[in-house]
Design a protein that fits this description.
The chain is of the alpha+beta class. It contains seven helices and four strands, in the order ααβαααβαβαβ. Helix content is about 40%, strand content about 15%. A four-stranded antiparallel β-sheet has the order 1-2-4-3. The chain is globular.
Length: about 220
């Protein structure tokens, strides 16, 4: 699979098989992440890979806390400003995916919220950290790195799903995994073999046409 094929095939999978993922394969994927461009080659990304009992422990801790405290996550982004064009895209996304989940007798909001904290049953969760003392502009480097990871996984027949909700529990994660308080979690990456027999994984949101986000000058 070449790069363009991986880009076109990539999606956010929401159902994973329990098949184990070989460590050598994970290492290859993270190595691809490490090949991403970064300012002055500083490579500010840090990965924490969790599987097995520790993965289950973290998932249960987050899920129990979410259910007990009914912690509100602004999944629709109502507490932040977004241009109307972006709001329209988000509205269509949630309308489409909620319709898809409802067809499969799933409670859409519960599935999305609690599914995130179950890591969508992926056998591997990768937490991506950055030293929080450095400038926020270096988050751009993290984004490039994570995209490499996602595309490398896709090219190897694996699936991914990026999680933001897990950041709300990063203090507990750092305490459990003995990670320095100087580190800030940027994102979680579910990793595993996607279950393509489950129709939930059929969902692929549309993409905006170039004329919606590109301006041309002199070409």
């Amino acid at each position: 699979m070449n790069v363009m094929e991986a880009i076109e095939a990539r999606r956010s999978y929401r159902v994973f098989k329990q098949d184990p993922v070989a460590r050598t394969l994970i290492e290859n994927i993270l190595t691809a992440g490490g090949q991403a461009p970064s300012s002055a080659n500083m490579q500010p990304w840090e990965f924490v890979v969790v599987a097995g009992q520790k993965r289950d422990e973290l998932s249960q801790m987050m899920l129990s806390s979410f259910i007990d405290q009914k912690k509100n996550y602004d999944i629709l982004g109502k507490d932040n400003f977004f241009p109307q064009q972006l709001l329209d895209r988000r509205k269509k996304f949630f309308t489409d995916i909620f319709k898809k989940l409802s067809k499969h007798n799933e409670s859409p909001m519960k599935y999305v919220m609690e599914g995130s904290l179950r890591f969508y049953n992926a056998p591997i969760i990768i937490f991506v950290f950055i030293d929080k003392r450095i400038a926020k502009r270096f988050l751009f480097d993290i984004g490039a790195c994570v995209q490499n990871v996602v595309l490398a996984a896709q090219s190897e027949g694996l699936g991914t799903h990026l999680l933001g909700l897990v950041r709300k529990y990063q203090d507990a994660v750092k305490k459990t995994l003995h990670i320095s308080e100087n580190k800030e979690m940027v994102v979680g990456i579910c990793l595993g073999y996607p279950d393509m027999e489950n129709r939930v994984n059929d969902f692929t949101p549309g993409r905006a046409d170039l004329d919606q986000f590109v301006e041309w000058f002199g070409i």
